[in-house]
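Comment thread on ticket #2218

A.B. wrote:
> Attaching the input chain for the structure job we discussed in standup.
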Amino acid sequence: MNDTNKKIISSKQKLPFLVKLLAVLAILGLLAFAGVIASQLLEKTSISKDTSRQETENTSNEPISILPNKPDGITILEKQPDLTTTSPQIALAPIAQGSEIASGFAMDLGASDSFFDLTRRFVDLAAANGVENFQRLEPRAVLRETVTGLEARLLIGPFETEQQAKEACNVLILPEGETCIAVIFQGDLIARE
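C.D. wrote:
> Ran it. Output below, let me know if you need it in another format.
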C-alpha cells in the first residue's frame, strides 16, 4: 500500500468518528431540551392543581365573588336619600331633579363675567332676602352668546309656573340697577356659598 491509500483509509476512519461525535452531541442537546420542557410542564401542572384545589375549597365554603380582589381605579357611589327621617316642612317650590334635569321656570337675575361672580351674587341676594326663602331653590348658570362674547347668567328656580316666578321677582329685594325676569329654568348648578 502506498502512502496515498493509507491517507484515504485513515480519513475514512476519522470521518465516522466525527459523525458519531456530532450525533451524540445532538442527542444530548435534544434530551436536555426535552428535560427543560418537561420540567416546565410539570411546574404548570402543579400550579394549576394547587389553584383548582384552592378554588374547590373556596367554592365549598363560601360563594364566589364576581368583583375583583382589589378595585382598579375609583368607585363612585351616588348617595341614597335617607328615607327614615321625614320633614314636617311643606315645600314652597319643587326641587329640580339634579344638575342634568331642570324643568319649570326661574328668575333671571342678570349676567356676570364668571361663575364665581354668580355665586357671590346669589349669596348676596339670599342674605338680603332671607336665606330661608332660598332653601328650596337652586342657583344655576346659563352661558349665552352676546355681541361682545359669552356671558354667564344667574337663574334661580324652579317654580312651577311662569306666574310664580314673576311674583317672586316682584317681591325680591335687588341692588339698584338690577332687574329680574321670569324665564325657563335651565343651566348648570353653581355653588351656594
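A.B. wrote:
> Thanks. Noting for the ticket: The chain has two domains: 1-57, 105-189.
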